[in-house]
Amino acid sequence: MYFSRPSDNMNGYRYSKTASVLGKLVHVIRIFGVFTAIVMFGVGVDIAIHHYTFGFYIMLMSLFVFFLEITWAITLFLNVCIKNEFNPIFSCWEIVLWLRLWKKSMLYTIFSLVFFLWPHGLWLSNIAGILLLWLSFLYIVVTFKDLVQKRSDFVIVPKGQATTSYDQYDDISDLLGDSVQISLSADNLSELDQDGILEL
Fold first, then answer.
1. Distance between alpha carbon 124 and the CA centroid of its chain, in Å?
2. With contact defined as beta carbons under 8 Å apart, do 146 and 166 qualify?
3. N or C: which end of the chain has fewer CB within 10 A?
4. Per-residue DSSP letters for 54-89?
5. CB atoms < 10 A from the CB of 176, how many?
6. Is Transmembrane helix tagged as a keyword (predicted)?
7. Which range (103-107, 111-115, 158-162, 171-175) has the least confidence?
8. Alpha carbon of 108 to those of 10, 56, 86, 146, 158: distances in Å?
9. Using the 8-state DSSP alphabet, how is residue 11 labeled?
């Protein structure tokens, strides 16, 4: 007969607590990413007001960061609106979804260098660069978490919670693709259903 040792229970508790914290980090990153894009846009506007054309490039860069930070919502929207999983839009969207986790981290690190090398005398430029570096660091943490989850044989999840990866809505097509689509044509309705509809 096997009795679990207290140390085993404590390790499992610590692991589940860490998994829970990292799962909540996903939502923090999404909010923090949008906030960072807004700060970047403000820096771009301020630089453009001082008659530097470089400000417009920063505004475009901030819109790109904002787009990358809401890809999970766009993915969910596409999966709900487009019922055909072989639609060419999905194959194009896969290119966008390729840029995630550590790839975003590398890109944001490069973007942050722009704010440090050409601050144009604005203190807010350094703030935007620091925010981008923090966002880049958070993506490295989430990438490490995903690698650990893939290599481990099991993941302890607290009761009542589902496991969450960073782009949990990126793979929702797997969930929706398995559901059977039934059209409401007369051929698919039973006689009882047809009679009920005619009475209405």
1. 26
2. yes
3. N
4. HHHHHHHHHHHHHHHHTHHHHHHHHHHH---TT-HH
5. 14
6. yes
7. 171-175
8. 37, 18, 32, 19, 33
9. H
